[in-house]
Amino acid sequence: MNFLGWLGKYRNKRLVRSVANDASGDQLAFMSAIESQLTPLFAKHGFKTIVVDVRENASDFLWRNKDRYISISSSTHPTDHPYPFDMMLGVGRDCGAEATWNSLPLTMIARMKGVKEPNAALMFPFRESEKALAGTRRIVEECCLDFLKGNMDSFLQLRKQHNVGRKPFTIIFQDWHGNKSEVVDPKSEEIRKKFS
Fold first, then answer.
1. What is the pLDDT of residues 3-26, one digit of tens each?
2. Which residues neighbour 169 within 8 Å (Cβ) at sequence distance 6 or greater?
């Protein structure tokens, strides 16, 4: 087993918690609100906290229940305006190329299930983290309860619907004369077919 494979297996069994000394107050409040609003909901359905990583202007969180996962990432870096946070629900690997095909963002699931303005609940909540994440929790309870309980039919159907129209990643080559050519990445095509 290679090092990354070992690290992935190790990470999925033990909590990796890292809170930087220079983490902003906004990121710390966001972490606290996640731990009070979302973590109990996920834990109620058997999801275990795997990663809590809070840095100066960004944070990442990961919960797993066997092959299902939920991840949240945020950024408040000045170049990342308008400061959204992303919540992804997926089945399988939670990182790498496979994660882009095996998961769906909460906003897309909510939109496909008829929730109006789901993006508003996923803007980074400066100064009102508890209130904002209570709204996110309501959307999760409304749209993703079947996923949390392990009933995957609806999720798999939505994922297939989303992935069927997507194109696989391409590799761009450039020769010595500056001529460019594009080739479909065979691994990406294989993964796309698997999850479509």
1. 334 345 445 556 788 888 888 888
2. 97, 184, 185, 188
